[in-house]
Amino acid sequence: xxxxxxxxxxxxxxxxxxxxxxxxxxxxxxxYAGKHPLICPVLTGSFIFSADLVRKLAxxxxxxxxxxxxxxxxxxxxxxxxxxxxxxxVKGRDIIIVEDxxxxxxxxNYMLHELAKFEPASxxxxxxxxxxxxxxxxFKVDYVGKEIGNDFIVGYGLDYDGEGRMxxxxxxxxx
Length: 175
Ligand code: 5GP
Ligand code: MG
Known about the structure:
The protein has 175 residues and is of the alpha/beta class. Helix content is 21%, strand content 36%. It has helices at residues 14-31, 47-54, 106-116, and strands at 2-3, 6-12, 38-43, 62-63, 66-72, 75-84, 94-102, 122-130, 143-147, 153-154, 170-173. Helix 1 (14-31) crosses helix 2. The chain is globular.
């Protein structure tokens, strides 16, 4: 399967993604039972994952999108840009940041630093995917859907230069 100029192969099927989302939601439902968290999905990559996840949550919750970008094409620029930042709405709230993938962790480190300025009551990170081989640390990913290798992936919200987000499976670049 081709996205732009690169060949990709199926890596995580639709059925496995549904299973992973189900398991994440089950854990969050236990931890946040009786609470009223504010879910903050990070645009654009997590729009599909977060839509699936929140529909499996059992507690009362609200959703407030943020948008922080760092990737260009297939690589991180290392510079994080806030396009839709956290606001005073997070003050005193139990926040769950929802990401598509934590790679180096640079973006999340930056976001956590920004978020802390607004004094939330608590903060947890939920990421569909984690690349442990790239992760530089600095924070804990409280809810990890699945750990993957260092390969570049697209689909289920994740893009290659703007394309491929609508794919139902996650695809890995063919080497
Ligand atoms: P980090 O700052 O942790 O290095 O990168 C995090 C962000 O980079 C993710 O939110 C995601 O938008 C993007 N990213 C990291 N790895 C990949 C990948 O393999 N494919 C795509 N499409 N985006 C990625
Ligand atoms: Mg992202």
